[in-house]
Amino acid sequence: MSEEAYGNRYKHNEGHSRSGADTGKGKKGAKSVKSLSFTGILFFILALATMFTLLIVAGVTWLSELLGSMLWACLAAGGAAAIISLIIYLVSVHRTIRTMSEYIDTIYETSSIAKAGYERAKEWIDYLF
């Protein structure tokens, strides 16, 4: 078979793979990759939440056997979670307050410069009239 006949024979299949699978060149392939990554992230977050829940339940159960009371185990686990949450909150709020303070200082300096410029312009206009 000549090259020309070979080329004409497969011309109708240009841009398509022989297996019929999507080559990823079109929009359909791009959408499926985005939805696949979102689904993967969603399942990862769900698995992580399940893992933390099971870890807390196992810890409380172990602590209740150790202390002999489910009430004291729940109070101890709740207290530990409250302390950890408080530490995380204070650390993150401290950074936020520092950042906001820097923004406020920048705004104050900018407004002071704008006010000084306004007063100079007003004095100049008053001098002219």
Verbal overview:
The chain is an all-alpha fold. It is built from three helices and no strands.
Give me the secondary-structure topology:
Layout: H1 3-9, H2 27-67, H3 70-128
Helix pairs in contact: 2-3
Q: Sketch the major β-sheet.
A: none
Order of helices and strands: HHH
Shape: elongated
* Poorly predicted sequence stretches spanning 5 or more consecutive residues: none
Total helix count? 3
The count of strands amounts to 0
Radius of gyration: 34 Å
Helix vs. strand class: mainly alpha
**Percent of residues in helical segments?**
over 70%
Distance between the termini: 97 Å
The percentage of residues in β strands lies in under 5%
Round the mean pLDDT to the nearest integer and report it.
80
Compact description:
With 129 residues, the chain is mainly α.
Main traits of this protein?
3 helices, 129 residues, mainly alpha
